[in-house]
Design a protein that fits this description.
CATH architecture: 2-Layer Sandwich
Structural class: alpha/beta
Strand order of the largest sheet: 1-2-3-4-5
Order of helices and strands: EEHEHEHEH
Number of strands: 5
Largest sheet: 5 strands, mixed
Shape: globular
CATH class: Alpha Beta
Helix content: 25-40%
Length: about 130
């Protein structure tokens, strides 16, 4: 079975790709995967690409748990850009919820949602 989550380290950043129907376990993996590698300390951006994914079974509490991990990680990487790439209703809804909660909880990262990976990378690297 193909892994639904992959990670690629780029110069100054991290590119995460989700595929298929994402579960709470996948969201948990995404939250940890980008912070558990020592190369993430030097990252200036993270792109989470969900163009090939759906998130019908993701609950708000799954997103809240991922956000809690990111809030902790932001203490060592406060100047990060986080770009979500999503174009279907379920993934856009999850990303929007994350953004809303992150703002309310004062996550210091800049966060945007894009419909193409090119736009996300341009914003992150600009």
């Amino acid at each position: 079975m193909e892994d639904k989550v992959s990670i690629q380290f780029l110069p100054r950043g991290i590119y995460i790709t989700g595929r298929g129907e994402l579960t709470s376990q996948d969201i948990h993996k995404i939250a940890f995967i980008d912070h558990s590698d020592e190369r993430s300390v030097d990252a200036k951006f993270i792109v989470s690409d969900f163009l090939q994914a759906t998130a019908e079974s993701i609950l708000s509490r799954d997103i809240d748990k991922a956000l809690a991990i990111d809030i902790g990680a932001s203490r060592s990487t406060p100047d990060l850009k986080l770009a979500f790439v999503a174009n279907n209703e379920s993934t856009v809804s999850c990303c929007s919820y994350y953004m809303e909660r992150a703002h309310k909880l004062n996550l210091p990262w800049e966060i945007q949602i894009f419909s193409t990976s090119e736009a996300a990378l341009n914003w992150c690297q600009g």
